[in-house]
Amino acid sequence: MFNASTSGVCQETCRDFGHMQMGWGAAINAASTFYAQGVDVFAEQAPRLVAAAEFAAAYLLGAPVPEYLCSGQGIKLAHVATFEVAYAALAKRLGHAMPLTWKQITTSVREFSGQDGIVSVWETLTHGEPAA
């Protein structure tokens, strides 16, 4: 299903990107709660979290899907208004480069914010910064 070059795949990647983003967003919200309580999961798990965000953003922005991914069945894209909380912690606070995630936020995430009806619609209000 995956090869050694695959990094950033989440549990629901091959189901659909809507569920993948909702699960990933829940993990990010848990990390935020830990951070508020003095435990920095973002710093501890930064390589994995950055890889997941950049992996998802690449395909949501239109990158071609490799044949091996999801047993060659392709991926089912869906947009969920998430990524802002992770970007604020990982890129703005910790300094990790996340260019695809930023592009995804400013070209798609904010466009779909409010359309999915879930709590992530508030991420731009609470964690976002203006696009350049």
Characteristic key phrases:
132 residues; mainly alpha
Question: Concise description?
Answer:
This protein is mostly helical. The protein has helices at 17-36, 41-44, 46-60, 84-93, 99-112, 123-127. The chain has one domain.
Structure, explained:
- α3 packs across α5 (99-112).
- Helices cover 52% and strands 0% of the residues.
- The mean pLDDT is 78.
- By secondary structure, it is mostly helical.
- The protein has one domain (17-127).
- It has helices at residues 17-36, 41-44, 46-60, 84-93, 99-112, 123-127.
Please write out the topology.
Layout (H helix, E strand, L loop, with lengths): L16 H20 L4 H4 L1 H15 L23 H10 L5 H14 L10 H5 L5
Helix pairs in contact: 3-5
Q: What share of the residues lie within helices?
A: 40-55%
Structure annotation, total helices: 6
Q: How many structural domains does the protein architecture include?
A: 1
Q: Give the SSE order as H and E letters.
A: HHHHHH
Number of strands: 0
Q: Supply the helix-strand structural class.
A: mainly alpha
The unreliable regions are: none
Radius of gyration from the CA trace?
14 Å
Shape: globular
Relative strand content: under 5%
Distance between the termini: 38 Å
Biggest sheet statistics: none
